Amino acid sequence: MVSxxxxxxxxxxxxxxxxxxxxxxxxLHYGTGVFEGIRCYDTPRGPAVFRHTAHIDRLFQSAxxxxxxxxxxxDEIRAATDELIVRNGFRGCYIRPLVFRGAGPxxxxxxxxxxxxxxxxxxxxxxxxxxxxxNGVRARVSSWRRIDSASVIPAAKxxxxxLNSINAKVESEKAGYEEGILLDTRGFVSEGTGENLFxxxxxxxxxxxxxxxxxxxxxxxxxxxxxxxxGYTVEERDIARGELYMADEFFMTGTAAELTPIREIDDHPVxxxxxxxxxxxxxxxxxxxxxxxxxxxxxxxxLVEVPARAT
Length: 311
Ligand code: PPE
Fold this sequence. Notes:
Structural class: alpha+beta
Distance between the termini: 27 Å
Largest sheet: 9 strands, mixed
Number of helices: 8
CATH architecture of the largest domain: Alpha-Beta Barrel
Radius of gyration: 20 Å
Order of helices and strands: EEHEEEHHEEHEHEEEEHEHEEEHE
Strand content: 25-35%
Number of domains: 2
CATH class of the largest domain: Alpha Beta
Oligomer: single chain
Bound molecules: ligand PPE
């Protein structure tokens, strides 16, 4: 189990073992929570959270879409997160803010249950294994379709919605693959269980659009900027399943997965079966950006401010 010294919960730092909730927490029963996944890197200028502000903005946006008023300001959450990193003595870590409906009246109507918030952090290595991150993973198109806007709000990073990703993840693992790729309800390519997707064909890139019910990934956004700065084109558009088999290169992006190449899709090797040249070029720049080694993208490294009282 992952662990840490302390967790920030509803405005206070509490020991990890004391960060507990009631069994009647609304979110435990009905999935009424929203969350973020963020990484902090040990950069030459000190610990820096990658695009911290963008993640906090998305947390507020997800909360708003489900009528949850977060009882803290963006600045308070950012300061609490920085202090949490310092108090735990982390230089690099994964950060999980979670906003959820706590114990209140039972039943489906959530708006009378309190909105609670916790931020946890822990040290987390490669999401899909060191070998997979380096050389690429084997993926398979899932029999489960991505949740769509007719039923939920795919653009919100909401806890209950993750049963969809979990179905695809379990299916792909049981079948011996490292990742599942979900199609949207129309049959176009949507995303991985926790990652956005990019294909390369004839030196042109493409990634599914919001119309494929993706979560708007912050790393997707960063990687699109890097690709365009390199002079390549990247289109946001519908991608047919067959395009995955014809792609020269295929990779995914996410906070946990960072940039992970896909080397095999549905038992077909992607390109040569090794991460391709454009994937490698984009990845090198992206890794430099994450780790604070890039001047050009230093704007994305939100340095951890050490509060005087925490030292
Ligand atoms: N789609 C989904 C469904 C998703 O969960 C993520 C992040 C992304 C796309 C990429 O978004 P971004 O991280 O902003 O680039 N998945 C998070 C959860 C992983 C987990 O196992 O939990 C993450 O990568 O932190």
